[in-house]
Amino acid sequence: MNVAYRFVFNGNDSNYVQLLNRMGQLSLFNGRVHYILALVSKCLNGLAPEYFTNMFNYKTHSINLRTSCTHSHVIPHVNTTRYGLHSLSYYGSKLWNSLPNTARSLPTVMKLSNRLFVI
Q1: Where are the domains of the chain?
Q2: Is residue 12's pLDDT more than 70?
């Protein structure tokens, strides 16, 4: 991919990140993070299949707290660090909780996607 970008832009002096910025694309890591957060948002809004929605548990409070309206996820306990920390339920919940409250409370996936490019 890097060689193709260099060929298109006819430049050997640019690094991979600069080439991605010129193309307006995300790096592989940022693309995966974007995809996971979009999936979690779909689960929250009821747009994802049930087997994805069942992976995430939402924090509920019996009393009115400041954090009760932030759409936070419960980060599940993992048994292994090799596979558990890389599971969709753990990593998706962790990424979702790391978003600012303004991004978590957006009503649609498209608005969240546009906001993620800014973050």
Answers
A1: 27-118
A2: no
